[in-house]
């Protein structure tokens, strides 16, 4: 194309004028601001300490309030002890204490954003960290994966962690807290290991959740599936259309994180099974049962002089240890009283495979494409468009 220089100059000037104007209009548009504010106002309550016999709280410029919301003069750090029906701090009793800071509150030397609320529950101190959902996600990313992974995989993690959290919050809305901070829900260690890439992934997906037929899904996920993800009904008995197993060769490109081996003596196995509530004595062999539709062990038979029985693969994993039997996709060999296990995958196998997602991102797929592969039929939506 050919333009006179004057025309080109004019177009350039118009572009300079129009672009900032469009940005200003977008930012000052009352509707979009309200939506953004609503997303940032969304909070989550996470149990970070449970049944503790002592908790220390520290930090700078901390506001301390009692159960009635009245501010207290309480020089930090403090050590809080549980009483039968309250908390004890330097000879004074309280029902509940809240510590909040603009930067971070240190609970047992770990920093947390938002506020830390202490109360007595289950014969010890319960500490609940209440903070904006988006801040929770920034802290969570490096507990679940590495933020150094390709950014589309990190963004996929941010979206499923947000989806999982909001789903749990809705289900436990009247409970003292919405989430555990362990593998029971999502691993969360406060803000110590947040970084610029985890913040970028959360910012670039602000408020995005996965939905199916307009509802926020139960976004289960796991470390690695070992070749095929699992149907939800094989683990929890309930069939969900978006938690159907898919093929996943992608995690197999990271064998160190997907393949595993472990050797245990029958004596050690018997002890672990006992502790896990299975009363076998004189264990002399174990045998694999049938495989389920996704190639995972459905049952394991325990052969013993007393108490022989068959338990499910998941019960076996739970009793022997999730860190030992990393998935139910394994074979076993008895060699003179030592059982050698060889397996692939880490976790229950339902939903997104984190190591598979990493490879999909390396292959050039976007976070949206990665998620629609592992959660078939789902649609990404903004939280503000659902409520
Ligand atoms: Zn996989």
Fold topology:
Blueprint: H1 5-28, H2 30-41, E1 43-52, E2 55-58, E3 63-65, E4 78-82, E5 87-89, E6 92-94, E7 97-100, E8 105-107, E9 110-112, E10 115-121, E11 124-132, H3 133-144, H4 151-171, E12 179-180, H5 196-203, E13 208-212, E14 215-216, E15 221-222, H6 232-236, H7 255-258, E16 259-265, H8 266-275, E17 281-288, E18 299-306, E19 309-312, H9 313-320, E20 330-335, E21 338-344, E22 352-353, H10 354-362, H11 367-374, E23 379-382, H12 383-386
Parallel strand pairs: 1-12, 15-22
Antiparallel strand pairs: 1-11, 2-4, 2-8, 3-7, 4-5, 5-6, 7-10, 8-9, 10-11, 13-14, 13-23, 16-21, 17-18, 18-19, 20-21
Helix pairs in contact: 3-4, 3-5, 4-5, 4-10, 4-11
The structure holds zinc ion.
Zinc ion binds at residues 224-225, 248, 250-251, 353, 356.
Description:
The protein has 387 residues and is α+β, with helices and mostly antiparallel strands. It folds into 3 domains: 42-132, no CATH class; 135-242 and 349-386, no CATH class; 255-344, no CATH class. It has helices at residues 5-28, 30-41, 133-144, 151-171, 196-203, 232-236, 255-258, 266-275, 313-320, 354-362, 367-374, 383-386, and strands at 43-52, 55-58, 63-65, 78-82, 87-89, 92-94, 97-100, 105-107, 110-112, 115-121, 124-132, 179-180, 208-212, 215-216, 221-222, 259-265, 281-288, 299-306, 309-312, 330-335, 338-344, 352-353, 379-382. A 6-stranded mixed beta sheet has the order 3-7-10-11-1-12. Strand 5 and strand 6 (92-94) form a beta hairpin. The two termini are 49 Å apart. Residues 224-225, 248, 250-251, 353, 356 line the site of zinc ion (ZN).
